[in-house]
Amino acid sequence: MPSHQEPVNSPFGYRSTAGEVIDGIDLSGRCVVVTGGYSGIGTETVRAIAAAGAQVIVGARRTGQAHDVLDALDGDIAILPLDLADPASIDAFAEAVAGRTDTIDILINNAAIMASPLARDARGYEMQFATNHLGHFQLTARLWPLLLTGGGARVVALSSIGHRLHGLDLDDPNFERRDYDKWLAYGQAKSANALFALQLDKLGESRGVRAFAVHPGGIATPLQRHLTMEEQRAMGWYDEDGNVHEAFKSTEEGAATTVWCAVSPLLEGKGGVYCEDCEVAVAADPEKPRAGGYYPHIRDENLAGKLWTKSEAMTGVSFPA
């Protein structure tokens, strides 16, 4: 299988917005599912896609907050309860989606938590891995029949430059033998998101389903809720006066690469790639740690296959044949 991990000469870039990348694209009659589409870049993703005419179904852990945010937007937007750390909630959401549509054209696995204190779900699984990766693994499996009926669906998995923190240990994904490190746990989850897209694309290509992984960029959003301002200053995200670093994107810019992967005609016939700044990313330069690009482990097909097998075992869920 040829690798498509090379730039496609996109006309968009670092400062492009979601509205700009979707301008002129008509999504009327299309159904799009977005997890966590009521906060941060998720809201801007939903705004752009709904404005293009799509029917949008948003999975929300806090449905009241979701209505407060999304009821003000134009378009056909439905909100359904979804807790990605609760397998029963995932199944119920998928069943509710199937009651509303026969086809999903785009699935955007956007919801995430970041650098949270050690917590475990009811199964004992570490919460960042459980929410960011395993929850979306199960959800995509449950929605798989609806994705197959469209004859050209796309799945967009939100990864992060945080994948460079790596941390992926398939022998101890839940930090039962390792000391818990919130950033290693985040790096593990975000690495898993990218590897999931790589393996999902291999599974879906012959059936017309393509998958993409996205680094949206640095954006000041509620994703940072678990970090103190002191921590964020130490990382250079904010200055001493509380001003966000100039390199940070707005939420509209942060949603752009997600939307670009979901709709761009330049990605027709491609998939399994890691994208950033509205373009297929190149390999990172280890001499420039703050520059863009991907680290090799998220392009490792053998590792992606092992993660897939581990995810099936941990969730008890397999994709329908």
Architecture overview:
There is one protein chain. With 321 residues, the chain is an alpha/beta fold. 36% of the residues lie in helices and 12% in strands. It has an eight-stranded mixed β-sheet with strand order 3-2-1-4-5-6-7-8, sandwiched between helices. Helix 4 (87-98) runs parallel beside helix 5 and helix 6 crosses helix 10 (301-315). The protein is globular, with a radius of gyration of 18 Å. The model has no long low-confidence stretch (mean pLDDT 92).
Keyword list:
single chain, 321 residues, eight-stranded mixed sheet, 36% helix, globular
Give the structure's gist in a few sentences.
The protein has 321 residues and is an alpha/beta fold. It has helices at 18-22, 41-51, 63-70, 87-98, 127-148, 182-204, 229-234, 251-254, 256-263, 301-315; strands at residues 31-35, 55-60, 76-81, 106-109, 154-158, 210-215, 273-276, 279-280. Helix content is 36%, strand content 12%.
Q: How are the secondary structure elements laid out?
A:
Elements: H1 18-22, E1 31-35, H2 41-51, E2 55-60, H3 63-70, E3 76-81, H4 87-98, E4 106-109, H5 127-148, E5 154-158, H6 182-204, E6 210-215, H7 229-234, H8 251-254, H9 256-263, E7 273-276, E8 279-280, H10 301-315
Parallel strand pairs: 1-2, 1-4, 2-3, 4-5, 5-6, 6-7
Antiparallel strand pairs: 7-8
Q: pLDDT under 50 segments (min length 5)?
A: none
Strand content: 5-15%
Structural class: alpha/beta
Number of helices: 10
